Amino acid sequence: MTILAGQQVDQRARRPDVRPDDQRDLAGLLGRRLPGHALEAPFYLSDEVFALDVAAIFARHWIFVATEPEVREPGDFVTVDLGPYSLIVVRDDEGRVRALHNVCRHRGSRVLTEPRGCVGNLVCGYHQWTYGTDGALLHAGHQAPDFDPNRLGLKAVAVRVVHGLVFVCLADQPPDDFDEVAARIDAYLAPHQLHRTRVAAQEDLVEEANWKLVMENNRECYHCETGHPELTCTFFPTYGYTLEDLPDRLLPAHARYLRAEGELERVCDERGIPYAAIEEIDTRPSAFRIQREALDGAGESYTTDGSVASRRLLGDLDTPRLGRLSLHHQPSSWFHFLSDHAVTFAVLPLAPDRTLVRTTWLVHEDAVEGVDYELDRLTEVWRQTNVQDRVLVARAQAGVASPAYEPGPYAPNEYQVDAFCTWYVDRLREHLRT
Ligand code: FES
Ligand SMILES: [Fe+2]
Q: Which 3 state secondary structure label does DSSP give 157?
């Protein structure tokens, strides 16, 4: 589909996130997108596109921002920045998880400045306006008699907790397909009982790249064989290949994969645990992919020999050999659920060329460090993998900034990258149409 000048340009002229001067460029960029090829450079470099990404993608879709164990008790909070937005995710005094804009209703100051903590109330440090954990304004000193605190609570943001994963949506009317997505992934996530986990570790990495390069990098394992020695101890490097595309050197790994997959399916079938792939990554607003797949080695977890990192399995699981349940949710998150721990990844855009990747490792709430697991072993594979990916995406960002860059073709095993870009371009077109 091609976006042409004309009526759409006139509509965009009224949009605060798109300056009139940018309209032809944006329409041209979107119209020129060549399926099967990488995006053009301005998608990764331009301030205007970044503003549009915030408005069309991050302010309009369900965004994974935290795990429920991070806000376990009333008053527990985390703050999350999404481009220019700052949000507070907090458990209120009634035990509900809420999301609030971190913008004081007095003169706009950030209310909370720490990344996480526990508070009785939310107190703005500027003039001490005080809000309850539900966002209601409780106290504002020295006001005129007609001051109405009921109209000045912190602005609420839509929030959904799905099996311990906290999603927010900044839109007044969030995409209504999220309920269906939550229902479709429910049986996959349920055995891991994330609400009965706790955070063993969390790591923030600022990557010197546009958020889409971070996501695109995660959507393929073309680079894994050479780029991720620790990950490929257990993650089959055959990921994304069809049998026809498979290089000869990967035939032994494929044979191991088939054996491990057969065993995994038997273990899952015995327990009624679903594993089949659902892949809807370019056909809906709340695009997602979920599948349980076998791991190499001992087949249990993301360690260098594939055996569990924590002896205390999640939920009521009675076997460690459950491979990896991998969930990808657009625009900005992916997850791996193992028998013994879970790892979540939130991609939070900071600027056109800077992105925060927040990785969180969760273990059973009763697992004891030093007894049931060692932190280094639990986190080693993804700490190393993240650092390796950070180098790769920073190189990609530097490369697309060169005037010599032109979008190259995706390989067949990068089909998910292509689908991600198709979804992204379609979402921008949809935004500019409305
Ligand atoms: S800006 Fe928050 S109390 Fe004044
Ligand atoms: Fe990678």
A: strand
Cα 225 to middle of ligand 2, angstroms: 10
The pLDDT tens digits for 233-253 are 999 989 888 888 899 999 999
**Residue 254 beta carbon below 6 angstroms from any ligand 1 atom:** no
User: Which residues are bridge partners to 327 per DSSP?
Assistant: 290, 335
Task: For the chain, state the CA radius of gyration.
Answer: 23
Check: CB of residue 69 under 8 Å from CB of residue 362. Answer: yes
Torsion angle in degrees (nearest 10) through CA of 224, 298, 67, 110: -40
55 DSSP 8-state letter: I
Structure tokens at 27: 């329409």
Is the CB of residue 291 less than 8 Å from the CB of residue 275? yes
Angle at 431 between CA 425 and CA 434, to 5 degrees: 140
Say how far apart CA 142 and CA 238 lie, in whole Å. 66
What is the per-residue burial (b if ≥16 Cβ within 10 Å, else e) of 267-290?
bbeeeebbbeeeebbbeebbbbbb
Provide the phi-psi class of 36: left if phi over 0, else alpha when psi is between -120 and 50, else beta: left
Q: What is the dihedral of CA 244, 260, 344, 218, to 10 degrees?
A: -20
- The pLDDT tens digits for 319-335 are 999 999 999 999 999 99
Per the CB < 8 A criterion, the answer to whether 89 and 148 are in contact is: no
What would the two tokens of residue 334 be? 């992916």
Single out the residue of 72, 359, 81, 337 nearest to residue 214, CA to CA: 359
Which residue out of 103, 127, 154 has the highest number of ligand 1 atoms within 8 Å of its CB and is therefore the one to mutate?
127
Of the listed ranges 9-13, 276-280, 412-416, the least confidently predicted one is: 9-13
Ligand 1 contact via 109 beta carbon (within 6 Å): yes
Q: How does pLDDT run across 8-46, given as a tens digit for each residue?
A: 333 333 444 555 455 568 888 999 999 999 999 999 999
